Amino acid sequence: MFKLAPFAAATDIVRAALYELGKAGGIMDAKDDLRAGPVKLITEESLNRVNQNNPAHTAGITFFGQFLDHDMTFDQTSRLGQPTNPSKSPNARIPTFDLDSVYGGGPGGSPELYQPKDAIKFRVESGGLFEDVPRNGTTKAAIIADPRNDENMMISGLQAAFLLFHNRAVDRVRAEHRGLSDFDAFFRARRLALWHYQWIILHEFLPLMIGEKMVDDISKGRKFYTPRMGEAFIPVEFQIAYRFGHSMVRPSYRANLAGDNGQPFFGMIFDPAGEGVADPVDLRGGARAPRRFIGWQTFFDFGGAHTEAVRPTKRIDTKISTPLFHLPLQTIFGGAPPISLMQRNLLRTLTWQVPSGQAIARTIGKNTAQLGKADLSELQDIQPSFMESTPLFYYVLKEAELMESGQRLGPVGGRIIGEVFIGLLQLDPDSYLNVQPEWLPTLPTTGNTPESFRMIDFLRFAGVDPDSRKQ
Prior knowledge:
Layout: H1 12-21, H2 37-43, E1 53-58, H3 60-72, H4 100-103, H5 106-109, E2 125-126, E3 131-132, H6 153-176, H7 182-210, H8 212-220, H9 236-241, E4 252-260, E5 263-268, E6 312-314, H10 341-351, H11 357-364, H12 392-403, H13 411-427, H14 432-435, H15 455-462, H16 466-469
């Protein structure tokens, strides 16, 4: 995306500095008091003074962002911290927002994902109060197109919601077009899901992450994400910058309001005590039990009486929730250390030989605000050169923290994320922007206008909203 020199040479000194910067107990660790337990980490304001809440975002947007990542990227071969030619580590996902992480190869290519008696509808199961993704009866491994969409309960819940959305879309299409072949019904239902999903990306997710002004500016013309011959790809700068979402993860969540024997189910996002347990105390995926479902009123604002239940994300900044420095190996593709997610993110800046945040800021334009050495003085004792040539992952978090109070991305992070997201939509020949640019959502909305379609409306159509469940 930017033809610039790497932020640093891939030396043992630099590698060691990245390990130090991203280590548990280091300067990026918010040092949450995990002894307080999952409930107090949410409810006691004094425990959120370092790892601050973001008043602009509700908790679910973090996991929608994770879902988007799994829809467009999957790196299965690169080695952390070892310089790698991107062309030698191909993306295992099609770089479009086409929901291949949900649909797989379709009923013909991935029949295990679909119902035996109605082959154009997804399998959806339950092992408790509400829906669950299909699972292997012995291992409980999810039977889904992308195994990463079972890393935690929230992403698994989103996967199940997309499955249900499609199934209801099939019902709607069949009711509106009697006698339609299964092939045509599947195609129409999939397009209904895709276009409403793409609408949410452009009109809800991106404005929250980069601001309406930048969305509008990029929509008028991309300046840096300009693939040759119009062939979409995922730039390495994007792969690094998009990891900003990790800073939004809370140490704990309330998964639902009444699933734990009639009481709320609270849990850490990850907790070592959950290892090897059939019904873990934390919110990791890969398990099935009556309480393991998501009550979406905690994660998105459905309005009315439900608003009281919603919780925020954490701010986009350099203070990261402590559990992310101690990942369960089952959540790491390949199952190999390091278990600190921040170390893994920082080492990838060496893997892809990504330029510094300052170099990209200068390239974007002279009017782009740039962090100075004083803004990054905490890096002095780790690696002095990082103050002037900062790893992009850290730079993106720091500029959001200082320039946008952690509520959205700053100019470098926002430009990278915005141009790639909008570019992927503009370059996709099957997106609504290309097929029918004036298209508006056709499903019911809380805002009573087609333009107001948002994630809460998507979840309502899927039938997983609090009113549909009566809980």
